[in-house]
Amino acid sequence: MATNRTFTMIKPDAVGNNYIGPILAKINEAGFRVVAMKYTKLSVESAGKFYEVHKARPFYGELVEYMSSGPIVAAILEKDNAVSDFRKLIGATDPSKAEPGTIRQLFAKSIAANAVHGSDSDENAEIEGNYFFAGSERF
Ligand code: ATP
Ligand code: MG
User: Fold this and answer.
1) Torsion angle of alpha carbons 100, 17, 55, 3, nearest 10°?
2) Per the confidence metrics, is the pTM higher than 0.90?
């Protein structure tokens, strides 16, 4: 159903470091098309809900606090094989382990402040995209 779409966020560290432009350039160069996009800020409540799957993890509190600490860019992206190709483009969760040339290797500061989010499955891409863009048009 949604196999050609994924959901991403440019996280507060990358927005704060003025990396929106360079990250979007990488995303475009890799062949992704933007179908929805929003510059916004998560409340503690909305970040907590978005990352609810990680509630039991020791870093959940830190993650929620961090993701609500500043503005983000949320977007739905389209490309064949979007979910797995986007995960390849962003690189490992820990930027020190991310492949050279990946977005996290280039732009992330730490495992917590790791520049971008990328959905990990078609099902979650659909859920996460709807979380930000329910009722809004996709182009
Ligand atoms: P994302 O879901 O943001 O694309 P991911 O799928 O690579 O990242 P997850 O395991 O889903 O990684 O973790 C979600 C987010 O939680 C990570 O992107 C990172 O910001 C944070 N995180 C993960 N592990 C740690 C950790 N050990 N310490 C602090 N924060 C962490
Ligand atoms: Mg994840």
Assistant:
1) -60
2) yes
Q: What is the pLDDT along the chain (139 residues), one digit of tens a residue?
A: 446 999 999 999 999 999 999 999 999 999 999 999 999 999 999 999 999 999 999 999 999 999 999 999 999 999 999 999 999 999 999 999 999 999 999 999 999 999 999 999 999 999 999 999 998 888 8
Exactly one of 19, 98, 117, 128 is catalytic; name it.
117
Give the integer Cα–Cα distance in Å for 67 and 43: 8
Number of domains, the chain: 1
Residue 54 a catalytic site member: no
- Containing domain of residue 111, as a range? 5-133
SS3 state of residue 111: coil
| CATH at residue 30 | 3.30.70.141
- Enter the tokens of residue 76: 């739905």
Query: Which atom of ligand 1 is nearest to 117's Cα?
Result: 4
For 96-124, b where at least 16 C-beta lie within 10 A, e where not — what string? eebeeebbbbbbbeeebbbbbbbbeebeb
Measuring from atom 21 of ligand 1, which residue has the nearest CA?
112
